[in-house]
Amino acid sequence: MENTKLNIPKLLPVLMGFFVMSFCDLVGVAVDYASKDFALTPSRAQLITSAVFLWFLLFSVPTGILQARIGKRKMLNIGMGITAIGMLVPFFIYSFGALLFGFALLGIGNTIVQVSANPLLIDVVPGNRLSSFLSFSQFVKSVGSMVAAPLAAFLAAQYGDWKVLFLVFGFVSVLAVLWLGVTKIDERVPEAGVKVTFGSAFRLLGNGFIVLMVLAIFVVVGIDVGFNSNSGQFLHKYIGMDEEVSTYGRTVYFLGRMVGMFGGALLLTRLSSRSFLLWTTVLGLIALFGILAGPSPFIAWGVVFIIGMAVANIFPLVFSLAVERHPSRTNEISGLMMMAIVGGAIIPPVMGWMSEVAGVTAGLWVLVVCMIYLIGVALYSRKTA
Predict the structure, then answer these.
(1) The whole model's pTM is what?
(2) What backbone torsions phi and psi does residue 324 show, to the nearest 5 degrees?
(3) Which of 155, 233, 299, 332 has a CA positioned 20 to 30 A from the CA of residue 339?
(4) Distance between CA 163 and CA 41 in Å, rounded?
(5) Angle between helices 343-358 and 55-70 (to 10 degrees)
(6) 217 near 343, Cβ under 8 Å?
(7) How far apart are CA 217 and CA 215, in angstroms?
(8) What is the pLDDT of residues 53-80, one digit of tens each?
(9) How far is CA 43 from CA 112, 155, 236, 281, 295, in A?
């Protein structure tokens, strides 16, 4: 039966899972610090992003199948537990290999968290407020993303070691596991006679609408991770900012995302998901052209903020549109869409390679092409509504 009332005690520990989900965005901070610590080339530094996001391709669908059997709450706790371990490895053993291993564990844990957290949120919020709460959950995620860079800088100044950040986020992950572990949630189960399998999940790819939406997730995560991990170098080398100051580009970007998600959660109570998706992707394209125009540093901060604000709601909008079309196939859709987060492992290295071959602006043109695709998806979703 569909939820009609909002249960705050059940909602809060699930939203905490979205905060833990944000820890994968530490990859941008790690790329900056590790590049200096280990003298990495741009393409080699992007191996850190691949170490995180590659696992979405391998584990998303199996996670969706397993959680249909053991429950979403248990799967979410497993994911947050693995995330905690991934945070501790590079804190205690700091080498490039150990960093890649720790971020691989972070990627595996984050895969599980992302596959299970969205469907579990659906179980604890009223159905008529789904799009709004999916956007608000991403707002919660953006809080963790935004504080990572300044917290790392603060810890480096206070304790002489930015890696204390791993210890802090590992401790938060453990607390999140304990909180959700003592919270009872009534989960929706698949329809009688419907068994979630690899076959049932991948057969959904025979649906053209689902394919477009899965590719949209691939693209938007690539934009998000690509801009996150490359913004500092772009602002330094192309806009001409001081290297230390340019690292705060991702903080401004995530601030834009946080504002965009909070605003999106409010606007989606009045606007349709399809209209909002179109306008936010158009805004994103305009902002990308704006940053490529090479504005002054002051204007560049504003454009970075707008890019974050524009990108903020695309992921939850795409997810909610797919679930709206096939509400009984939530586990399979979640698995397929989280598998597409592998875009975060593929698009940033392409950007890094393009930057080495043709200059730093060439990497951002990759994101322009991705945003144009998202506009096409938004137009198609309106046409087929």
Answers:
(1) 0.74
(2) -60, -35
(3) 233
(4) 21
(5) 170
(6) yes
(7) 5
(8) 788 888 888 888 888 888 899 999 999 9
(9) 27, 27, 17, 28, 26
